[in-house]
Write a structure and sequence with these properties.
The protein is mainly α. It has one domain (3-89). Helices cover 66% and strands 0% of the residues. The protein contains 5 helices and no strands. The chain has helices at residues 3-6, 15-30, 37-53, 60-72, 81-89. It starts with a helix and ends with a helix.
Length: 90
């Protein structure tokens, strides 16, 4: 917990993390909630997918299209970070 005392470049607060999740929190707060359990699951997971795609420069919409296509064809979609670029290229 006190790592910032020993490591000079360590942030003493979690402001960066708080700022990174703020858009998702606001989206959930103003989105009027979910009307079903499946909708609730989507609202929980969509911001995580967005955050996972961002560092790799992947378009979230295209990623979701690939996921839906894989689900429809009953293919397993590998979601590891190393394979995400190859998935999007196919």
């Amino acid at each position: 917990m006190w790592i910032f005392v020993r490591v000079p470049d360590a942030e003493p607060t979690n402001n960066a993390v708080e700022r990174s999740v703020r858009p998702a929190v606001l989206w959930r707060k103003t989105g009027f909630g979910a009307q079903s359990e499946r909708g609730g699951t989507f609202v929980e997971q969509a911001p995580a997918v967005r955050a996972s795609c961002r560092p790799y420069g992947l378009a979230v919409g295209e990623f979701f299209k690939k996921v839906v296509a894989a689900k429809r064809t009953r293919r397993t979609l590998a979601l590891s970070a190393a394979k995400m670029s190859r998935i999007m290229a196919s």
